[in-house]
Task: structure prediction
Amino acid sequence: MSKIRTIGELQRTREKIKSTIEEREKTTPKIMVGMASCGIANGAKEVWTAIQRKLEEDAIEANLVKTGCIGMCSSEVLVDIVKPGCPRISYKHVTPEIAEELIDDWVVGDDPRPDLALAVIDEKPFRDIPAWKELPFFAHQKKVVTHNCGFINPESIEEYIARDGYAALAKVFTNMTPEEVIEEVKNSGLRGRGGAGFPTGLKWEFTRKAKGEPKYLIANSDEGDPGAFMDRSLDEGDPHSILEGMLIAAYAIGARKSFIYCRAEYPLAVKRLKHAIEQAREYGLLGKNILETDFSFDIELKEGAGAFVCGEETALMHSIEGKRGMPRPRPPFPATSGLWGKPTNINNVKSYACAPQIILKGADWFSSMGTERSKGTMVYALTGKVKNTGTVEIPMGSTLREVIFDIGGGIEGDGKFKTVQIGGPLGGCLPEEMLDTPVDYESITETGAIMGSGGMVVADEGTCMVEFAKFFLEFSQAESCGKCVPCRIGGKRMLEILTRITEGKGEMEDLERLEELSKVMADASLCALGQLTPNPVLTTLKYFRDEYIAHIVDKRCPALSCEALVSFYILPEECEGCGICRRACPAQAIAGDKRMIHVIDQSKCIKCGTCLDVCPEPFSAVKKVSGKKIPVPEKPIPVGTWEPPTTADG
Amino acid sequence: MKEAFDLTELDEIIEKVGEERGALIPILQRAQRAYGYLSKEVLRAISEKLSVPLSRVLGVATFYSQFHLTPRGRHVIQQCDGTACHVRGASRIIDTVQRELGIEAGETTPDLKLTYEVVYCLGCCAIGPAALVDGQVVGKLNPDKMIRIIENLE
Result:
């Protein structure tokens, strides 16, 4: 494909690609394999190879393509088949064997295999296969940012262009002044999708008006929050939407040079973004005098080197400058003094991806979704102990309950919902009674959590809230850059206190100490990392205080999770003396013999839980307890001879 | 273990990216890719060639978790213990591996076969517990599965 020189040529190219695709789909079946990181980890490459081999061996003509992730990670590997004249059918949990069956039965034959199908990606059901919007997972979603993910081949600029890609850019070039672009984005009500929620249009305006040349643009895809992968899904599934958004922003601001800062832990995202940038250059959509305008712009990809704090904007800029990624106080804000001291606009990749759609469909369309102060949609990464995990996009204002129970399908297994942790390690843990909170910047902040970038981790009763808070503290204090004292030392001290409590060595005064330290950190830390580090502790103290008290006063972990406070016992009434646990115990802590009741030596037990896992189910003789002892014989005795002490209180 | 090493590759890297502003991190990344880890010799050579004080080079190299100043194993497993993997039992995998290999997370086995690291999020939360085994994402892990993976490494 050669360079696209003018706006007219872009339009003609689009028509040409569209008709080529349509022509091909009229005659040739299309097979799409979901090849984002999650799909690949579940075996998408093997499925791909199997399909390729099958098509070759049986000489079947079909168009085999990669797509990004439609969001339903728990159903991976996803394979979609579009037969001429039929709607697109999505198949779940596809293995190489199932893929071959699908080719025989549906690509060649006439059985669409409803038993293997997830849904029809179309308005109406098709031959016993439900339409996707009938599934609760999709019914509540509204795909704006992720509208192309799972629908196009992310490595093909042609497919992006065919779905109105770069049409917003053309519209901006022909019909809009930079000021009008900014006005449109302001009117849409778009706020920063990185989590802080600053109005995007206003930020663009500040950078446009700031004095100093050159101006820089940065897209932040340093998605470091554990439990968050929305940016990755977008980077891997629709990289050109980010590029187009950046082009529009650059035009509005007057920037010529930009960077995408992506985590190095995302090798596929880095590869696809780089590929997209190269394609855009080849097509003349990046570079000098784009589409014969006097607008020139280029994007460079910067890989992070593994520092969570680099998600903070000033730290990120230091990292691009080749320095230690440590934040600095603001003001001055990046809009006036950013990269190399020049005016810099920095947005999350999802914020940029909203821009083309706002330009194409209008600010009113965008602001018709959401709440009074939070417009549009929010992309969440829904994970943990829910049935349907994946990326979901919902209109702002949906409730947490809708996300977890309708879209997520509720708790996986037999467990009961305990908490949802939202906003990443700097967010908070909310209990059942807060589930009707609408998802918008203000409501979420009021609960003590933060909107954050969109991680949503659900935990069931097996999670200890003190240990959970400690886990986040471990993360945040390890990632503290060490520049300011409240964060560096405050986090460390809080972690020590939490560790003490999980070991059963806490005292009630510790709770006050935690609250005091939290306050100082929130008030005095230099950047959001330090200011928000206390959030998981404060929210668990607020909503799950009784668990802290159980650890401190009763020396008991109600979730049976804190190692120091749990013990394993072999119930003498149930043990049949099979010896499986004795042989499996890595610490040789179990004494016993054939047909003898086995006994765990508590002083040797490392509490790994292996005995509980291996004890055959009909016996289920191993019990995990906290805060109490179970009477057992001192030494192994023959099965059937155990007599419980009469004074036992159980 | 001291390897005699050849600086030509480093020269090529610096020639390729040295002109860019903020080149230090990309140079360290590429040098690590080329040499496996950032040895004293490599760091010193970078400092001299870029005319950047060694203290600054070392400051940057020690700030970011992806830079390694000691030799790495032939295989690298990065076990995710991010929130979602944690909720799904990553810590039991970590405990088991540490026990079986006799090394702490972040260390390399004495025979340089394997470096086992704990990282905070690979962004593959939906299939947790997950790990990167020599760069390939592996999901839905449990202690047994991980031990089998390690045993099967060459």
